[in-house]
Specification:
alpha/beta, Rossmann fold, UDP-galactose 4-epimerase, domain 1, 7-stranded parallel sheet, 3-stranded mixed sheet, 14 strands, 36% helix, binds uridine-5'-diphosphate
């Protein structure tokens, strides 16, 4: 199959692009390189540098290449940033997804895998969170993705779109020592902690120590990027690869992706101290706007329905893989040819 991977130069999209190629698929990456890195795109993938707001570019792409399915990773992802510039998020994440969906449906492409997020749930009603729990984002990032999920449901109902929506909890770690997380600026907890261990920052801020959690800091469910990636291939298969497999009564595949275990910010710092041998000084700081206290995935649905099994559920393993990448590439992709 030929798969269009938007955002394939980014942290998760590039890992999935590599896994698709390994599984024997052809991959076309579409990325504007605003946040992604050309060097992260696997060599065997075709890279088209373009913007999802450019409908003509998308039409040309679908006309010239026989795309069988789309995996849509391209998005802005920082919850904190979304609370300062919500319109940018609705433009990039919501409006651009609509343009992509219109273009693919016009070209007759009906298989779609969407990068969704735990941010859809906001402050959850219960822990662990199940897929049919209330969707009530506490930040504009989550809302920008929820709006896409709502559109997908209508396009399924009206146009027969076959889609999977994978609600990521906290993606972390590296799939290989030469492919990893490199956001600019970096806002995510684990890379920021490891930056301190590398001597690039003198301390890490803990955003909020007065949450209703055992140690007062936010609790998150960290999932290894390779386990996350593998779920995408399972979801793609489950969409029905050929028209013959495409049963009439297909129901959208909506899954949480996490390990079902939560770690506080302080616990992540502690594990990183063990892994790196660095003291990693912390500064207790005010809360970051829009952050829910606890996000832990109930991921029984994807385990039951698609047979997904995380291979690297241990936080220590996740941190070790991230440390390998960051130690070897302290400047991210900047210095890689
Ligand atoms: N966090 C922190 N210091 C940082 C970055 C993040 O205390 O420098 C906290 C953040 O408030 C959240 C958790 O770490 O509770 C995970 O944040 P991240 O941005 O990595 O992912 P998110 O949960 O926002 O998707």
């Amino acid at each position: 199959m030929k798969i269009l991977v938007t955002g394939g130069a980014g942290y998760i999209g590039s890992v999935v692009a590599g896994e698709l190629l390994q599984a024997g698929h052809q991959v076309v990456v579409f990325d504007n390189l605003s946040r992604g890195h050309r060097q992260a795109v696997p060599q065997k993938a075709e890279l088209i540098v373009g913007d999802l707001a450019d409908r003509a570019a998308l039409d040309a792409l679908f006309q010239s290449r026989a795309i069988d399915a789309v995996m849509h990773f391209a998005a802005l992802i920082e919850a904190g940033e979304s609370m300062k510039a919500p319109a940018t998020f609705f433009r990039n994440n919501t409006a651009n997804a609509l343009t992509l969906l219109e273009a693919m449906l016009a070209a007759g492409v009906k298989r779609f895998v969407f990068s969704s997020t735990a941010a859809l749930y906001g402050n959850p009603e219960r822990t662990p969170i199940e897929e049919d729990d209330l969707l009530n984002p506490t930040n504009a990032y989550g809302e920008s993705k929820l709006l896409v999920e709502r559109m997908l449901a209508w396009f399924h109902r009206i146009h027969g779109l076959r889609y999977a929506s994978l609600r990521y909890f906290n993606a972390a770690g590296a799939s290989r020592p030469d492919q990893g997380e490199a956001h600019q600026p970096e806002t995510h907890l684990l890379p920021r902690i490891l930056n301190v261990a590398l001597g690039r920052a003198s301390n890490v801020n803990i955003f909020g120590t007065d949450y209703p959690t055992p140690d007062g800091t936010c609790v998150r469910d960290y999932i290894h990027v390779s386990d996350l990636s593998h779920a995408h291939l399972l979801a793609l298969d489950a969409l029905g690869l050929s028209e013959k497999d495409a049963s009439e009564n297909f129901q959208p595949l909506i899954y949480n992706l996490g390990n079902g275990q939560g770690f506080s910010v302080r616990e992540v710092v502690d594990v990183a101290r063990q892994v790196t041998g660095h003291a990693i000084p912390v500064i207790e700081s005010p809360r970051r706007e829009g952050d829910p206290a606890i996000l832990i995935a109930g991921s029984g649905k994807i385990r039951r329905e698609l047979g997904w099994q995380p291979r690297f559920p241990e936080l220590k393993t996740i941190v070790e893989s991230a440390w390998q990448w960051h130690r070897a590439h302290p400047d991210g992709y900047e210095r890689i040819g």
